[in-house]
Design a protein that fits this description.
globular, 208 residues, 17% strand, alpha/beta, six-stranded mixed β-sheet
Amino acid sequence: MPLLLLIRHGENDYSKKMRIAGRMPGVHLNAAGLKQAESLAEALAKAPIKAIYSSPLERAKETALPIAKASGIRIITEKGILESDVGDWQGKSIRRLALNRYWQIVQRTPSRAGHPGGETFLQSQTRMVSTLDTICKKYKGVELIVCVSHADMIKLAIAHYIGLPLDKFQRLACDTGSASLLMITESSAQLLWINRRPPFDLSKFGRK
């Protein structure tokens, strides 16, 4: 019965300016993002973390690093929780894309659309959920597993586990530096909380 703590990376200049970073290399946390990462590490310093997984992208690893240092657990880089392949939209302004008719279609019916030249939302969701299911099978008992990923990937995973249709996944919120907690069993999943920023206390869950 693992507890999955899904953390969105901290703020960076792309997220601050509402631009799509996608899988672009070299996107680092800005000053606010570094503070968010430190706040997460402080909140989780006494939590019984069993493992820490991170997307390979810099902004995710830089968020995971303070948590790893505080808990004394090494980071496992996991490609399966990498950001969606946003294709032609990488680097683009969300405000400008919002004027595009296809963008509006994607937002209304993501189950039937995807990123031009990249992944569909169903492909991203399938990849993320398959990876998280595989991770969960490695652990038994009430064990806290940290996964540092990206907004849409986290929302897609939560939507799957709580039975929310794919076309409604964007109704979920996932701010930079936030955490969402899921309890996963063999037959069900429970969303304990979503989009929460520190302070919070997970020290009562399980044992180190």
